[in-house]
Inverse folding.
């Protein structure tokens, strides 16, 4: 009777890793989140404070840098914890790092 031989290959199996939560940095998870409603209202999560403010200019402190908004008729509707809601007419948005 003939012996059967098992041949093992040394080829490594390919491993596909499309997304892993471990690869995300903490700053990516807690970074700012902007939500605009037309150019009339902004909700910003991750705001650490107000640096400058008047009716036409707003500078908000973020984890890494600042957010500068220009426009007219700015009104801070609410600022609770790290979420700020601003109404007005926005004409310019700038991230400063």
């Amino acid at each position: 009777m003939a012996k059967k031989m098992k041949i093992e290959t040394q080829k490594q199996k390919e491993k596909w890793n499309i997304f892993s939560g471990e690869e995300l940095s903490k700053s990516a998870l807690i970074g700012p989140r902007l939500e605009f409603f037309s150019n009339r209202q902004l909700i910003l999560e991750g705001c650490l404070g107000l640096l400058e403010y008047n009716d036409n200019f707003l500078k908000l402190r973020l984890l890494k840098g600042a957010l500068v908004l220009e426009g007219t008729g700015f009104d801070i509707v609410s600022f609770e914890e790290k979420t700020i809601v601003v109404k007005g007419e926005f004409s310019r948005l700038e991230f400063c790092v």
Notes: The two ends are 77 Å apart (CA to CA).
